[in-house]
Amino acid sequence: MMLGSSFNMKSAVQLQQPLKCAVRMHSLTPAVRLQPALQSARVRGARGMLGALARGSRALASAPAGQGETDSPETVSTQHFRLSPHAHPLNAKPERLTKAAYETSEGDVSNKMGRQQNHIWSREELQDKLETYKDVHTPVEFSDHVMHAIMYYGLYHPFNFITGYKEINPSPRSIEWRLIILESFAGVPGFVAAGFRHFRSLRLLQKDYGWIGTLLEEAENERMHLLVCMKMFKASWLTRTLALGAQVGLTPFLMAVYMIKPKALHRFVGYLEQTACKTYHNIITHVETPGTELHAAWAHLDAPAIAKGYWHLAPDAKWVDALKCMYADEANHRDVNHTFASMEADDPNPYLHKHREDAVKAWKIFEEEHMRKHPEKAKEVAQ
Questions:
Q1: pLDDT digits (tens, 9 = 90+) for 33-45
Q2: Cα–Cα distance, 221 to 114 (Å, whole number)
Q3: CA dist., res. 46 & res. 197, Å (int)
Q4: Alpha helices in the chain (DSSP H)
Q5: How far, in Å, CA of 82 to CA of 25, rounded?
Q6: Where does the record locate the signal sequence feature (predicted)?
Q7: Of 46 and 305, which is predicted with more confidence?
Q8: 113: exposed, middle or buried (C-beta count within 10 Å: 0-12, 13-18, 19+)?
Q9: Which residue has the higher pLDDT, 287 or 360?
Q10: How wide is the angle at C-alpha 99 spanned by C-alphas 96 and 100, nearest 5°?
Q11: pLDDT band at 372 (very low <50, low <70, confident <90, very high)
């Protein structure tokens, strides 16, 4: 019994030490807290993290005695971290959870690093993509002809008439609600295809061969296009009604097509993106051409913060720079879906390496931007 009591007391003392350490780290002043040290340790690796923890422990050892009676920022907190207003030492409690904070930090939250990472376009890549706006697929199979006819004669030309769009000197208003409706619908096919392939993988107890990730990134990319447009334009009740009608009316059609012939849906999306590339290229050309309505209305506009964060644009980027990125994304979706339409359902996704490269590139850009914003961190890493 004595042995058991001794063991329990010793165990309790040992367990109290890391708890006290965590509590002190939780509420010490910013100069003593471990959070900045842990952030720099992320760059240095595991060895740097251990060193940061050791430095934090030495700082705690040198802290004045008597800290721990109150819950002021200068002293130790005895509250559980979920009840405390202070940040948890291991960052288990996010600092920003309010909608207001989310709305005021769009440049940060639109950064997709570590999630559905989008491609960050360089100037050279944008120029190369802009030269492909005339690239089109010629229908071969019967289903290709059907999807081509539905896209161009059932949707594209009627859509031009409804929105009042004309290729020669289009008005800003005709482009505004055209882009909102286009992007609100363009995000549907990728999600539908990803959902069907997800359930197919579960149902057949087999791999998806990497398609789902690409399709989800496409859907997310189109949704981000819509959010960028909504920062530049205001949607009227008519625009919202058309966007709702397009989603309600065409989503069942897309689902039916994918159940019958998945290749046909990818071909349909390829044709849809061809028209989007044509539209965006025409918009960009007119914005950069003096004397046009779009140049007068849009050439001087700055890109919204959400676009700068999503594509990692320069701080002085213009609206036309965001439009070029949107065009490049559409050109990429065009090529990807025409490729998928020519593949079998069990063929491995040829774009998996591209996603990895995008993630690595985004991480490097993020680190460079972080070091520029926090030069003191760069000095720590260099030491």
A1: 434 444 444 444 4
A2: 14
A3: 38
A4: 2-27, 35-44, 46-61, 99-103, 106-109, 123-130, 142-149, 157-163, 172-204, 211-232, 237-260, 262-287, 293-298, 305-311, 319-341, 352-373, 375-382
A5: 15
A6: none
A7: 305
A8: middle
A9: 287
A10: 85
A11: confident
What is the sign of the dihedral through the CA atoms of 326, 238, 154 and 267?
A: positive
* Domain with residues 123-375, CATH architecture: Up-down Bundle (1.20)
The Cα 330–Cα 324 span in angstroms is: 10
Q: Distance (Å, rounded) from C-alpha 246 to C-alpha 89? A: 48
Q: How many CB atoms lie within 10 A of CB 42?
A: 11
Task: Name residues whose C-beta falls within 8 Å of residue 287's C-beta, 6 or more positions apart in sequence.
Answer: 294, 295, 298, 299, 319, 320, 323
> Comparing C-alpha atoms, which of 147, 220, 156 is closest to residue 182?
156
Q: Is 302 helix (H, G, I), strand (E, B) or coil?
A: strand
Read out DSSP for 69-95?
Answer: SS-STTS---S-TTTSSSPPTTS-S-S
Given a contact cutoff of 8 angstroms between Cβ atoms, the answer to whether 240 and 247 are in contact is no
Instruction: List all residues 6 or more positions away from 40 whose beta carbon is below 8 Å from its beta carbon.
Output: 48, 52, 377, 380, 381
Q: Full-prediction pTM beyond 0.90?
A: no
314 CB-side CA count, 13 A: 7
C-alpha of 287 from chain center? 26
Q: What is the rounded average pLDDT of the residues 357-374?
A: 84
pLDDT of 280: 97
Average pLDDT of span 143-151: 97
CA distances (Å), origin 163, targets 71, 174, 232, 276: 61, 6, 18, 14
State residue 168 phi and psi, 5-degree precision: -90, 115
Q: How far apart, in whole angstroms, are the C-alpha atoms of residue 192 and residue 251?
A: 8
Please tell me the predicted confidence (pLDDT) of residue 74: 45
Per-domain residue ranges of the chain? 2-95, 123-375
Residues in a beta bridge with 302 = 318
- The residues facing 318 across adjacent strands are 302
Kindly calculate the radius of gyration of the chain based on its CA atoms and give it in whole angstroms. Answer: 27
User: Which amino acid would we find at residue 185?
Assistant: F
